[in-house]
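Ticket #286: bound-state structure for zinc ion.
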Amino acid sequence: MYIPALRFFFVGFILFLFSCSNKIQQENRIVVTIEVQRYFAERLAHPFFEVETMVAPGTSPESYDPTPQQMVRLAKSSAYFGIGPLGFERAWLDKLKQNNPKVRFFDNSKGISFIASESHHHGADESGIDPHIWTSPRNVLIIVQNMYEALTAIDPQNESVYRENLKDLRNEIIQTGEMVQALLNRSSQKAFVVYHPALAYFAQDYGLKQYPIEVDGKEPSPEQLKELVDLVKREKVKTVFIQQEFDRKNAEIIARETNCKLVVINPLSYNWKEEIIRIAEKLPDE
Ligand SMILES: [Zn+2]
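RESOLUTION: The complex was predicted; output attached.
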């Protein structure tokens, strides 16, 4: 039986036990919010820290709740790397900070210029900020710089290793960005449709237009869907992106009525590089 209040109580109780104990030994572990961060953090922190993700793959970073086991692991970790205005962090970060005074918290989104969210579901405390910052290679360079600075703050002794790791990782990110640009140069597509608007920063980097199907985190009305179908025809859009976690019925209607290709993407994937290149590949030549 699932009783949310009871579960919350249980998590709180475990945290209470841990905060009463001074015997916690911090382990060489960094906890991050999403899988994409783990990809970069593992590369940078190698070989000194292991990295674990809070929001389990296949679940929504807007509404995820940590498990009691994750709470215990976090209490014994060295640091937590946040990614900014995601639903999970708005709901949980303050509690996590309060309950884990020995864990150092860092914000990987520091210094990024946010863009206003386009019909994004943000729950009760609407932030109005688009949280999907990691779909832009330019932003990822800022994210990994922040990670590097956090690592040198918690482990200054190994600064030279982190600096080398950062150099390699930056090269890979810059190359990935150039590959995306080269792919898009071959494409006449300057716009795409996406069910959940997770690609605004990607679109901004490469001068593309993102048309979301979702309206304020909800399915569109029949009128809104019809408007979008007309727009897609007018702008000769060829690709509709969908994500596993979201509805595909409306995307299928649009693809059918406009002859668009339906492409499943996973912008939260651990394999950041492959995924972003794949997205660019799916914007075809005319
Ligand atoms: Zn989202």
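RESOLUTION NOTES: The chain is about 45% helix and 10% strand.
TICKET STATUS: resolved
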